[in-house]
User: Which sequence fits this backbone?
């Protein structure tokens, strides 16, 4: 399938852009070649799409279910009992609600950490809706032998599971955290990840308590424990990473891990503020994620960029830190590269993961600096069309099966309330 | 004019709502009375609209013009030289761009601080577009005698200026700040405000430097200086108010002033974080504002609510602080009351300043808690219809003269770039 976008603003100039075989084939002033679909780009700009490097997709069905609570009572009284109801009849619609929201807010790829043995369902939903994802099983044993054995078996199941679209979907292993996972299970996960060449995705250093407890228990920081377990590689995605020592940062950089800032969730749960300026200066690989809908409560990378940029400024007491262009690159190219996709730029040869934004939306007017407008002014209302891997997944703000997904989500939410 | 909204979600139930003579006349299960306009409220909810209690409307035309800079170089090298070009040919279109954005993001009233002797133009734009505003002249003299005399004359001009719509528009006086305005001019402004019964709108305690410099110069805090000048009353709106002493808070509460949180601007310029929890516990009147577009860079009260709630949590290290319902009330009823309008609630007898939000927007699904969804999940894409003073100002996401305003703003931005 080929797509020709005519007369759009592309990298600051009015140009045409041709997409062929999932890639940006050509950008030029006037492309006359025929294409399967021609998009009128007048008053629109082409931008790279977003990659959400840490989320829990199915939790979208918990949006607004419980807020403004202490972490532990929030988890134990509200979230966990609700999640205990999540079976194979819940996850399809819950996942599709998340995917619909991602598309509507301009995200085409995500790094997921969800759920018990339902990766087949999640992969199918991602495939159907045309997105990219790292789909992973959640590994934790709460230091219980039986649970450990079960999780090892689940992990074997994931390894055997066939991938409906290896071009867009990656299977991975999410080790939940050092405070929920035994050393044995961590080491085992690292070995399986190595054997099957699967990326790792880990919650780490989210709260000060996590670090203090880990030091008390192991005499090491969480990063040191993860490293000693063999879990840190250049395809390990470390979510949160709020409380890192200088030595932790050295280990992370030596191994080439990706740090994922989750500013909104960290504020909502009072975890802390990602040390953007310090980590940037140390040369860390940084990506951006929204976390799940229960602690955010949306999946908008546009909103997340603004929180990242503004918190980085106040945290470092320097308004020049975390410029719009830097943060936009983190949310696009940074995320794509972290997932191993050659995308995140509007450039010939790159994967065609693109947005068309509406330059007649008041939030993008005036257009002195489109990237500043995207980071500091925009919201999802500016996104008109979304393309992933050279295919249109949203056009004129409409996703093909949107009405069905919304109807099914409403039914599911009602069902969960009375279950 | 009467409007009948049929079968919408209103305060948690499906009801009809009748608007007559600018007010909510009736809310009931089935209203059969005829109305000039009937709105189908199926899959929509009726909510109170927002009031932006501190902004500089015309600065919308500077959106994205200069970001990520140190305050002083930002102001002196970029913002002030650009503002120096703002004459009576610039302000009409610049103002309308701001009003259009406010409507699109659900705001029907605002407290403005803009500009030299152009309040007639701003009042006309507010009147034409059907909104509410406190329109004010900016008073400052930079401690220069000639400028003080000019400003006193300007103030006389404002007093004589006729108000095209006293029902929706209030004339007010904005004393810029203690560091830009002499004691004489502050005292004079207080007298004029008292004589003409005009509210006051003042930048105060925005930065620590402002407070330190004021203590060094006057041996008093900015709040003490303002109080001694007679500027603190129960219709005085104090923007920013980040750096307040306990004694300041006592004075503010004794006088009944309104504190306006501007969380986004305070982060972007590294001013500090509004002490929400402390001020709430002290019983302060709190409202919310976006500041101008040059330091935000939008006028979205939805986004501002989320920043307020999340920053209040992290600042107090307590996730239960600044609940969604509390913050929503501040942005609606809190703002309306601060401006003296009996609005901000969906209740019979209140002014009909209302939103219809789209319950089929993924950001509002599931609908466990609509107010949580509005504060933590929504963006402007959820807003379908906006009603101010019983008249529709946006319907089905379209503002009547939107295309003209957008076209004029684009022309103006180009003109300013080459001026």
Assistant:
């Amino acid at each position: 399938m080929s797509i020709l976008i005519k007369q759009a603003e592309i990298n600051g100039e009015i140009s045409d852009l041709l997409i062929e075989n999932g890639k940006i084939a050509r950008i030029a002033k006037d492309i006359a070649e025929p294409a399967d679909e021609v998009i009128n780009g007048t008053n629109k700009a082409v931008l790279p799409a977003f990659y959400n490097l840490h989320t829990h997709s199915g939790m979208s069905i918990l949006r607004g279910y419980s807020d403004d609570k202490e972490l532990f009572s929030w988890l134990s009284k509200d979230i966990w009992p609700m999640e205990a109801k999540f079976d194979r009849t819940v996850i399809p619609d819950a996942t599709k609600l998340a995917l619909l929201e991602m598309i509507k807010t301009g995200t085409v790829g995500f790094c997921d950490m969800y759920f018990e043995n339902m990766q087949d369902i999640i992969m199918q939903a991602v495939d159907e809706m045309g997105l990219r994802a790292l789909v992973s099983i959640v590994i934790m044993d709460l230091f219980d032998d039986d649970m450990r054995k079960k999780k090892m078996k689940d992990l074997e199941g994931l390894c055997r599971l066939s991938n409906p679209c290896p071009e867009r979907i990656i299977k991975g292993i999410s080790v939940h955290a050092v405070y929920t996972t035994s050393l044995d299970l961590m080491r085992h996960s690292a070995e399986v990840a190595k054997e099957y060449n699967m990326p790792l995705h880990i919650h780490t250093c989210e709260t000060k308590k996590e670090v203090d407890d880990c030091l008390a228990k192991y005499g090491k920081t969480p990063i040191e424990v993860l490293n000693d377990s063999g879990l840190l590689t250049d395809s390990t995605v470390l979510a949160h990473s709020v409380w890192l020592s200088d030595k932790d940062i050295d280990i992370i950089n030596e191994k080439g891990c990706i740090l994922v800032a989750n500013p909104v969730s960290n504020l909502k749960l009072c975890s802390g503020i990602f040390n953007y300026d310090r980590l940037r200066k140390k040369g860390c690989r940084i990506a951006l994620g929204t976390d799940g809908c229960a602690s955010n409560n949306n999946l908008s990378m546009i909103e997340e960029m603004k929180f990242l940029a503004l918190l980085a400024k106040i945290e470092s007491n320097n308004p020049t830190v975390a410029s719009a262009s830097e943060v936009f690159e983190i949310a696009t190219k940074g995320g794509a590269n972290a997932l191993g996709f050659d995308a995140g730029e509007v450039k010939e040869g790159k994967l065609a993961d693109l947005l068309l934004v509406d330059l007649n939306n008041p939030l993008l007017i005036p257009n002195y600096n489109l990237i500043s407008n995207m980071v500091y002014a925009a919201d999802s209302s500016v996104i008109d069309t979304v393309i992933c891997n050279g295919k249109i997944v949203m056009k004129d703000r409409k996703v093909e099966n949107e009405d069905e997904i919304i109807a099914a989500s409403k039914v599911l939410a009602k069902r969960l309330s009375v279950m």
Notes: The two ends of chain B are 45 Å apart (CA to CA). The mean pLDDT of chain B is 97. The first strand of chain B starts at residue 2 and ends at 10. Residues 402-418 of chain B form the longest helix (17 residues).
